[in-house]
Specification:
Blueprint: H1 2-36, H2 41-47, E1 53-55, E2 64-66, H3 68-74, H4 82-102, H5 105-108, H6 112-138, H7 150-153, H8 164-172, H9 175-203, H10 207-230
Antiparallel strand pairs: 1-2
Helix pairs in contact: 4-6, 4-9, 6-10, 8-9, 9-10
């Protein structure tokens, strides 16, 4: 009796597994058929075994089956505009001044925390300059576009930029005086960078610039909080 019950139990388990597998296969077939429906060119190509792209629909709408050509045409245009190019050109100059100020810290700062902060700023912004310079070589300004150099590299026109006098004062400071002035100037500098990033996020069009600006907002906002706590 026990053996018979065991055999019946095993057979029932096998039947359950077979039914489950059949259900999964059926569901997969239905999903495949649903993806091919729509009566458009992409669905026709899917039926013929050609390459297709499944584009998710809006909330409440079905996904669409597109040909690669249709998908390429449907892709949003993210070509750079004047705001993108102006931001990149200006931010390169902005970052360079941050490197100039940070380079003074190793021999002039009194607090180790200020020295470490300056080192982190240099480590982050130096490669960002390289990335932005590379972006400009790929996306040069068209003929006739000013490019956003603020009237010939007028640094004072960019938010947060230190004046020549302030840089001279920072260069001549030592110890706690340097620390205090460095944190004051660099906080204002970062706030200016965040403002510039926010402006291009509102007015720009290029995805790569959007990513760079978003990184500036995240990184420099965190450093602003850190510097205020140090001050």
């Amino acid at each position: 009796m026990d053996m018979a019950k065991d055999l019946r139990g095993r057979e029932a388990l096998r039947a359950l597994v077979r039914r489950s597998a059949a259900a999964v296969a059926t569901a997969g077939l239905l999903l495949t058929l649903a993806g091919c429906q729509g009566g458009d060119e992409g669905a026709d190509r899917a039926a013929d075994g050609g390459a297709v792209v499944v584009a998710p629909g809006r909330p409440g709408e079905k996904a669409r089956t597109l040909t690669p050509e249709q998908a390429a045409k449907a892709k949003p245009d993210d070509s750079p505009n004047a705001a993108d190019r102006a931001y990149v050109q200006r931010m390169i100059e902005h970052h360079r001044q941050a490197l100039t100020m940070s380079a003074l810290a190793p021999e002039r700062a009194g607090a180790d925390g200020v020295k470490r902060l300056a080192d982190r700023i240099s480590a982050a912004q130096r490669p960002e300059i390289g990335a932005m310079e590379k972006w400009l070589t790929v996306h040069p300004a068209p003929s006739g576009e000013s490019g956003g150099h603020d009237g010939g590299h007028d640094h004072a026109a960019m938010p947060g930029m230190a004046t020549e006098q302030q840089l001279e004062e920072l260069t001549g400071a030592r110890g706690t005086d340097f620390d205090r002035l460095f944190l004051t100037l660099m906080t204002a500098h970062h706030e200016g960078a965040v403002k510039m990033a926010g402006e291009v996020l509102a007015a720009g069009n290029n995805v790569a610039v959007e990513e760079m600006a978003t990184e500036v907002v995240a990184t420099q906002s965190a450093e602003i909080h850190r510097m205020r706590a140090m001050g």
